[in-house]
């Protein structure tokens, strides 16, 4: 009686599975995000078509979808990258060197000057808020996180100003920070209407004049004292 021979399925050669493996990416993801950020910044979210992204990034639609998802997901990543960069720059600039108020005034002035140098594109964050809020919750979360961080950084600087006797006694550091934050956001929008840097500089100077501690007394010819608040 012949013994039954068990049939053994032959194993596929090692190279048979190569076709199922994902192809390695041959592009710099961070560089692509930067290019997408600049395109969205220049054109806005709605006006940027997928064909624009394909042309600007030099990638096919399939590669973009595989690496970043759809247009909205790519936009959110690009905006998040921009905001993270802004946060790091702010944290680096607001140090403990020099008088707190003048340091903060200088940082805000440079922030507005950088937006002015963007060729009329304005601030990417402010543009995105104006275009997509309140309907886009993902963008709203990014914006709230970024604005809260800026408010906290301004508050810390104004608290230092208060400790050093620079801040007007009637000014709360937190409320002063919100005043400056709202002012800067408004100026970034107004720059689209009136790009003259003198307007922004004058508004900042006025705001910091209100925040600073006024002179308690002054002298006039004849040594007649008067309070600074009495000046018309």
UniProtKB/TrEMBL annotation:
Q: Which PROSITE patterns match?
A: HTH_TETR_2
A single MF term (Gene Ontology): DNA binding
Q: Which UniProt keywords apply?
A: DNA-binding, Transcription, Transcription regulation
Q: Which residues form the HTH tetR-type domain?
A: 26-86
The answer on whether this UniProt entry bears the keyword Protease reads: no
Known DNA-binding region: 49-68
What is the name of this protein? TetR/AcrR family transcriptional regulator
| Organism of this sequence | Streptomyces marianii
